[in-house]
Automatic annotation (TrEMBL):
Origin organism lineage: Eukaryota, Viridiplantae, Streptophyta, Embryophyta, Tracheophyta
Residue ranges constituting the Trafficking protein particle complex subunit 13 C-terminal domain according to the UniProt record: 334-425
Positions of the Trafficking protein particle complex subunit 13 middle domain: 202-316
Pfam families to which the protein is assigned, alphabetical: TRAPPC13_C (PF23643), TRAPPC13_M (PF23647), TRAPPC13_N (PF06159)
Name of encoding gene: LOC107901718
Name of the protein this chain belongs to: Trafficking protein particle complex subunit 13 isoform X3
Residue intervals of the Trafficking protein particle complex subunit 13 N-terminal domain: 9-194
Protein origin, superkingdom: Eukaryota
Similarity comment: family membership: Belongs to the TRAPPC13 family.
């Protein structure tokens, strides 16, 4: 891991990452002694079931004799937890290990004097270098280490909150006076890669679904996964809680204690669902203007032995909102429509802009000059509507008449702005059933 040109330097850096130990697991599975002698069906015999426990108990007492130095009972189950294979011992880190975004990198650094003479006036620097920046962790320029005796060492600890992905380099340098008074410069580089512990995938309609996936080799316990909505949104987390249903009469404060959520190692997944609502009526205008920032996720977790991690996602963008200036929709159509008798269709015209539009003309456009329409306007072929205020709407009724039996289509209902001389897309076709009187 270390790269440097040692030459004839008296000093050398040694780096050890500080992290909590892991559980020592014995590879062989432990077993229940009863499984060696009998099967499960022996307990179907009342006599055998009554005599077997004392027999096994006497055998276990003999095998657990403290004078037995062969440890012949080390694979036996003395407690249900023994089946997990944990020996009760902790294993110190055997390698530098993986480092993940959001963790705190903590390193124990020792500068050793391997020469046979004392080294004096040592200025030590430790820095983290990434692709974007260089961060100073330690600098003894103002108070140099006075001396390090022959065979001695000077130790220190540095910490850094990991906030970038990719290649990192721990740069350790020493400027010191050698035995002959020569000023020497020693650089050493320790490289490591920061990986992403989690992947966050989101889906958004009127809801936002966040899928948290564990990319590490250890279990992660989620202390907090909170969605911070953008100013024009409000968010409510949706939970399936059958044991403790929500109590609307409560004070509404946060839970005093919230058990962490386990996401298992090597690809474990947990989904979170948030309901998004516009925070105020003014937010509608922001949507029209194309603002589609929803917010960001704050995630904190701990590993098996409580080591913390923290991650904040970038701003999550929703699907770009494309609103029509004018929206025409059918609210109601009569369920019974008779041949050659007029019927009223209830429609709504909505203005999605921040300015007043209109007046408007509503008519049925012709798809083809040779195609005869089976549903036509009854009366004046053009209906005039007044101006519609900004973000306002108006309801109106259009009188139609069907000229043919069976399944027919209302097609070509079109709105035009007489002031701006603009014609909007026609309303999608609607099927109706025409009966004889």
């Amino acid at each position: 891991m270390s790269t440097t040109q040692q030459g004839t330097h008296s000093l050398a850096f040694r780096v050890m990452r500080l992290c909590k130990p892991s559980f020592h697991v014995e590879p062989p599975f432990r077993l229940d002694p009863a499984d060696l002698f009998v099967g499960e069906d022996i307990f179907d015999d009342p006599l055998a079931a009554a005599n077997l426990p004392p027999l096994l108990s006497s055998q276990l007492t003999k095998s657990m004799d403290s004078s037995d130095l062969t440890y012949g009972n080390r694979f036996l189950l003395h407690h249900p937890s023994d089946a997990m294979g944990f020996s009760g011992l902790l294993l110190l880190p055997q390698s530098f290990g993986a480092i993940y975004l959001g963790e705190t990198f903590c390193s124990y650094i020792s500068i050793n004097n391997n020469s046979n003479f004392e080294v004096r006036d040592i200025i030590i620097k430790a820095e983290i270098q990434t692709e974007r920046q260089r961060i100073l962790l330690l600098d003894t320029s103002k108070s140099p280490v006075e001396s390090v005796r022959a065979g001695g060492r000077y130790d220190f600890i540095v910490e850094h909150d990991v906030k970038e992905l990719g290649a990192h380099t721990l740069v350790c340098t020493a400027l010191y006076n050698d035995n002959d008074g020569e000023r020497k410069y020693l650089p050493q580089f320790f490289k490591f890669v920061v990986a992403n512990p989690l992947s966050v995938r989101t889906k958004e309609t009127t809801y936002l679904e966040a899928c948290i996936e564990n990319h590490t080799k250890s279990n992660l316990y989620m202390d907090q996964v909170e969605f911070e909505p953008a100013p024009h949104w409000s968010a409510t987390v949706l939970k399936a809680d059958e044991l403790h249903p929500a109590d609307n009469s409560s004070t509404g404060g946060r839970e005093i204690f919230k058990p962490p959520i386990l996401i298992r190692s090597g690809g474990g997944i947990h989904n979170y669902l948030y309901q998004l609502k516009l925070a105020s009526p003014d937010s509608a205008q922001m949507k029209v203007e194309g603002t589609n920032i929803l917010g960001k996720l704050q995630i904190t977790w701990r590993t098996n032995l409580g080591e913390p991690g923290r991650l904040q996602t970038q701003q999550i963008l929703g699907t770009p909102i494309s609103r029509k200036e004018i929206e025409l929709q059918i609210l109601e159509i009569p369920s019974l429509i008779n041949l050659d008798k007029s019927f009223l269709v209830h429609l709504n015209l909505t203005n999605h802009t921040d300015r007043e539009l209109g007046p408007f003309e509503v008519q049925l456009s012709q798809n083809s000059a040779h195609e005869e329409k089976k549903v036509m306007i009854n009366g004046l072929q053009t209906m005039v509507l007044p101006q519609v205020e900004a973000f306002g709407s108006t309801d109106f009724h259009l009188s139609l008449i069907a000229t043919k039996l069976g399944v027919q289509r209302i097609s070509g209902i079109t709105v035009s702005d007489t002031t701006e001389k603009k014609t909007y897309d026609p309303l999608p076709d609607v099927e109706i059933f025409v009966e004889s009187d």
